[in-house]
Amino acid sequence: MGRGTLEKLKAILQGELSATENVQQALNRIKELDKKIKAFIELNPNALAEAEAVDRKLKRGEQMGKLAGLTIGIKSNINVKGLRATCASHTLENYVSPYDAEVIRRVREAGGIIVGMNNMDEFACGSSGEAGLVCTLRYTFHCLSAYSGCLSGGFAAALRHTCRVLPKKQKSDIIYT
Predict the structure, then answer these.
(1) Domain residue spans in the chain?
(2) Has residue 145 got a pLDDT over 60?
(3) pLDDT surpasses 80 at 134
(4) H or E stretch including 20?
(5) Does domain 5-167 have CATH number 3.90.1300.10?
(6) Model confidence pLDDT, tens digit, residues 69-82
(7) Beta strand spans in the chain (E)
(8) Strand 71-75 and strand 113-118: pairing?
(9) What is each CA distance from 139 to 1, 22, 57, 73, 136, in whole angstroms?
(10) Angle at CA of residue 161, ends 148 and 67, nearest 5°
(11) N or C of the chain: less Cβ packing under 10 Å?
């Protein structure tokens, strides 16, 4: 098992783990497992560059926010500038957000790194995680054969298989790892 959220934050702030290393580890884990669990609709192509910017600020001794270098998955019904806000629907599968929602602005201000957009039930209307844009989510503790059982299923699947830590949530729409 990897480090928990607070342990990662402490390690990043103390220079034991770089934000770039943290993001690369998360992206590697996502690439390893997401074809099976389908937790992410889209990955942020700028995640590593954003992590490098956090590392530069830390190196200069700048004060960092409470999320400095932590990886964050965003439910696909929240706007993140430059990423697709699909609401897990084919109707919106090509909609690219032209702006950041206020919560995203605050996450970025606090140094959080958005790694991608999570799958969910279409338009957040469901309770099983089975009606997402990229098909049924898979979530279980011992194998990849059970449903996630919630409309925020992408988060449950990502937490179990990708991030391997417990979340701090904001209205079940954002995971911090």
Answers:
(1) 5-167
(2) no
(3) no
(4) helix 19-37
(5) yes
(6) 999 999 999 999 99
(7) 40-43, 71-75, 113-118, 174-176
(8) parallel
(9) 17, 23, 37, 16, 10
(10) 105
(11) N
Neighbouring C-beta atoms of residue 59, cutoff 10 Å: 10
The residue behind tokens 């084919």 is: 90
Helix (H) or strand (E) holding 72: strand 71-75
Provide the whole-model pTM.
Answer: 0.78
Residue 150 or residue 93, greater confidence: 93
Alpha-carbon distance 94 to 98, whole Å? 12
Residues 6+ apart with CB under 8 A from 101: 78, 79, 80
Q: Which two tokens stand for residue 143?
A: 């194998």
Please give the DSSP secondary-structure letter assigned to residue 39: -
